[in-house]
Specification:
Length: 118
């Protein structure tokens, strides 16, 4: 069995600690989950207008992300580039919207009904 140096062990411990971190600055309440049932990005952005906007250097804040075809891909609150509370819009190959997934506190919380007019 290989012997590991103290530096290797410390680097591994720091890496494992970073993976285990959870969002600490903002926890969403049950009242906030009601906004998700509206299935509108605008409802989230209006409710949390005073919160910090998405920062591309650290991936934390409220914002909207677009795909390469300039279609809205995700909107809501991000922590370390992961969608914590908001919507993930999924398109098919013909660029039509097929699914809107809702995320609440980092977990999938259901799907929104897609209306034909969208």
């Amino acid at each position: 069995m290989k012997k590991f140096s103290a530096i290797t062990f410390l680097l591994f411990a720091q890496w494992a600690h970073c993976l285990a971190q959870k969002p600490k600055s903002l926890l969403f309440t049950r009242q906030d989950s009601v906004l998700l049932s509206l299935c509108s990005c605008d409802s989230i952005m209006k409710r949390f207008a005073a919160e910090p906007r998405f920062n591309t250097s650290n991936g934390i804040g409220f914002g909207r992300l677009y795909n390469f075809k300039k279609q809205l891909s995700k909107c809501g609150y991000f922590y370390n580039y992961k969608l914590i509370c908001g919507y993930d819009l999924i398109y098919d190959n013909s660029d039509s919207l097929t699914q809107i997934a809702r995320y609440f506190n980092g977990r999938h919380a259901g799907d929104c009904e897609i209306k034909k007019g969208r």
